[in-house]
Amino acid sequence: MDLTGKVAIVTGSGQGLGLAYARELARRGAAVVVNDINADTANAAVAAITAEGGKAHAVTGAVGSTEVAQALVDGAVETFGRLDILVTNAGMLRDKVVWKMTDEDFDQVLNVHMRGTFTCVRAAAIRMREQGEGGRIICIGSPAGQRGNFGQTNYSGAKAGILGMVRTWAMELQRANITVNAVVPVAATAMTETVPFLKPYVEAMHNGEQLPSFARRELGFGGPEDAAGIVAFLAGDAAAEVTGQAVGVGGDRLALWSHPDMTTTAYHDGGWDAEAIEQEWPTTFADHLESVGEKLPEEASAQ
């Protein structure tokens, strides 16, 4: 999986999952533009990558605006001469139940996750199309965006929206040989430390303890480095035909998420009024309703 000569941008890569992605891409030979809202954090990440023999350059700024997105692309082109890979990882949380969530809580999270993904992908797509040599765009999703999560109206909505955009961009950029995929990671980061059923496993990792097989396999939970391999794969030549997909990763587990689809259908001549639906519902639909939230194995549910 040689990425020598490739240039990547990884947003939100000063620490956590983003840093793991940036380090893995650099280890594979790519030059990496590191991004973080904090200059010291971004510079420390660059130092860590260069100390390992990689090439990296820091661009500080909070993703969301067109200006920061363009600064990231300009930083890649001016420093390394081109752009081949974009990983949109930057994120934040403002968790509250819907009746307590403020406009600011909602807007801040949507601005970073959803608008930030849009502006960065747009800027990268323009550059990649100008180069005419294809490219790789990898957007980071979340299980919360796939199934919902209590207290995360803003985050779940943004992550679900990102998947919708990924599928659209995969179609729009296919002729330019630019693949667009989503990675749905589960890993020990600052954003998962507050999840109650994951807390004991996060603490175990902080204490240098080995995670049990249940956590790594059934929960698909591990460290940030466990989620980095799929990013390197999707950035490489071996994934040239993979586009529009949502790939789950974490611990020892790798999985494909399905796209939304109709699961149960019925037909009624002349259309469906409320009474016809009331009559049909118990026999055709009632036993096929979808669940919400993560369906956790019993051991995790008991935590």
UniProtKB/TrEMBL annotation:
For whether the record's keyword set contains Ligase, the answer is no
One annotated GO molecular function: oxidoreductase activity
Task: Tell me the SMART domains matching this sequence.
Answer: PKS_KR
Family matches, as PROSITE patterns: ADH_SHORT
Query: Sorted alphabetically, which InterPro entries does this protein's record hold?
Result: KR_dom, NAD(P)-bd_dom_sf, Peroxisomal_Beta-Oxidation, Sc_DH/Rdtase_CS, SDR_fam
Membrane-crossing ranges are: none
Read off the Gene3D superfamilies from this record.
Answer: NAD(P)-binding Rossmann-like Domain
Pfam annotation, one family: adh_short
> Per UniProt, which keywords does this protein have?
Oxidoreductase
Instruction: Outline the extent of the Ketoreductase domain.
Output: 6-224
Does the keyword rRNA-binding feature in the UniProt annotation? no
PANTHER family recorded for this chain? Answer: DEHYDROGENASES, SHORT CHAIN, SCP2 DOMAIN-CONTAINING PROTEIN
> What protein family is recorded?
Belongs to the short-chain dehydrogenases/reductases (SDR) family.
Name of the protein described by the UniProt record: Ketoreductase domain-containing protein
Organism, as annotated: Halopolyspora algeriensis
